[in-house]
Write a structure and sequence with these properties.
- This protein has 413 residues and is of the alpha+beta class.
- The chain folds into 3 domains: 126 residues, Butyryl-Coa Dehydrogenase, subunit A, domain 1; 107 residues, Butyryl-CoA Dehydrogenase, subunit A, domain 2 (Beta Barrel), CATH 2.40.110; 164 residues, Butyryl-CoA Dehydrogenase, subunit A, domain 3.
- Helix content is 50%, strand content 12%.
- The protein has 13 helices and 9 strands.
Length: 413
């Protein structure tokens, strides 16, 4: 199967009706993506057809309301789906995970009316989200012009970019400290993508720069802002508003684990089918699969991968508990979830990078051929795991273990 086959591989059965069915659907998508993942990574093209595959599979509206045609699934299922897709193609797993986060953005900060409108819009239209919310850059500047907010500025990273239908913007109202999130159509003259994403890994995530040149948004679309009696708009904060960072961090951990799982599976196939036993050993084996050190290493790496999976599953239960009472969630609940997610992320990075390196010990010199493509896993995890320094995640867990201290909400905790 080539990229052309991926373009045409839209012949899915009826939509699943159970969480397990949706994870199986994600594995089906991953299988289709994995066939030519190496060629597509090398080509570094805009992943238009890959996103269409996600749409046609039904995965894009996994979290969407059933009454609008969505699957109405929970975050536990969404994270498992991200993990499964990432095993076939890490870039597409990341895109899907970010889409789920931004599709949930209205629930995090919006009013009930805004939540209903956004979820109906993206679910009925099968829209895909991107986001221009890189916190390391300066905030977009927002000018108030009558009943409209005008966003202007630049972001050096905007995952989803040119293949998104909707883009999440975040900025600060000029002369204030008021942050505003807004969801806008991607295809408009005031949003200009640089198309400059050409990095070591995660090459198909459309994460390049974007210029925001006067995107106009009505006040009524400023997420979470409510019109007051005097005509002004005010935001009423709650702890749940800060869940966006724990959510995106647990998404990271899941697609790292998915990438590592895919690498280990690819390596195992290569070891069984191609790798030769070492002919100068004291106890020469007929096949590489019988070599003790190869069996031991696969056992070690698989055990570590399973441990990482257990940790992200534990984190998901905390997210579900928070979602069950979003209006009453406490700072302590949020903080404890953030700590477990920090632990899951660092373990996922460590295991993923180790697997990305040791697969070569398990496959041999010929597996370094570019056509094999085992380098993709290490490149993908190495690239994205630099999103924010993992040392700070270790320290967050350490402060909790030593001092009982939970992390204060920031753009990265």
């Amino acid at each position: 199967m080539t990229t052309e086959a991926v373009r045409n591989a839209a012949d899915f059965d009826a939509a699943p009706t159970t969480p397990e069915g949706w994870v199986d659907r994600a594995r089906e998508v991953a299988t289709r993506l994995s066939v030519d993942a190496v060629a597509r990574d090398r080509a570094n093209q805009v992943p238009t057809y890959e996103v269409n595959l996600l749409k046609e599979s039904g995965l894009v509206t996994l979290l969407g309301p059933v009454e609008h045609g969505g699957a109405g699934q929970d975050w536990t299922t969404a994270l498992r789906v991200v993990r499964a897709v990432a095993a076939g193609d890490g870039s597409i797993g990341q895109l899907l995970g970010y889409h789920y986060l931004w599709a949930w953005a209205a629930r995090l900060v919006g009013t009930p009316e805004q939540i209903a409108a956004v979820e109906q819009l993206y679910t009925e239209n099968n829209f895909f989200f991107g986001g221009a919310v890189n916190p390391r850059d300066d905030d977009l500047v927002i000018k108030v012009e009558g009943d409209e907010l005008v966003f202007t500025g630049r972001k050096s990273f905007s995952t989803g970019g040119r293949i998104s239908d909707l883009t999440v913007l975040e900025g600060v109202i000029e002369g204030t400290e008021k942050h505003v999130f807004a969801i806008v159509p991607t295809q408009q003259e005031a949003i200009v993508f640089a198309g400059d994403w050409d990095n070591l890994g995660q090459r198909l995530t459309e994460s390049g720069a974007v210029e925001i040149n006067g995107v106009r948004v009505p006040w009524e679309s400023a997420a979470g802002y409510v019109k007051q009696a005097d005509g002004s708009f005010e935001f009423q904060p709650r702890v749940y508003n800060t869940l966006n960072v724990p959510l995106v961090q647990i998404i990271f951990a899941n697609f790292y684990i998915g990438i590592a799982e895919g690498a280990l599976k690819t390596a195992a196939t290569y070891t069984r089918d191609t790798t030769r036993a070492w002919p100068y050993a004291g106890d020469v084996k007929e096949s590489a699969s019988e070599e003790f050190y190869i069996q031991e290493t696969y056992g070690d790496l698989t055990s570590k991968l399973w441990a990482a999976e257990a940790l992200v599953e534990r984190a998901a239960t905390l997210i579900e508990a928070i979602n069950s009472h979003a209006d009453e969630v406490t700072e302590q609940e949020r903080g404890e979830a953030a700590v477990v997610i920090a632990a899951a992320k660092q373990v996922a990075i460590d295991v993923g990078l180790e697997i990305g390196t040791k697969v070569y010990d398990l496959t041999g010199a010929r597996a370094t051929s570019n056509k094999v493509g085992l380098d993709i896993a290490w490149r993908n995890i190495r690239t994205h795991s630099l999103h924010d320094p993992v040392a700070h995640k270790r320290a967050e867990v350490g402060r909790y273990a030593l001092l009982g201290e939970i992390p204060a909400p920031t753009w990265y905790t």
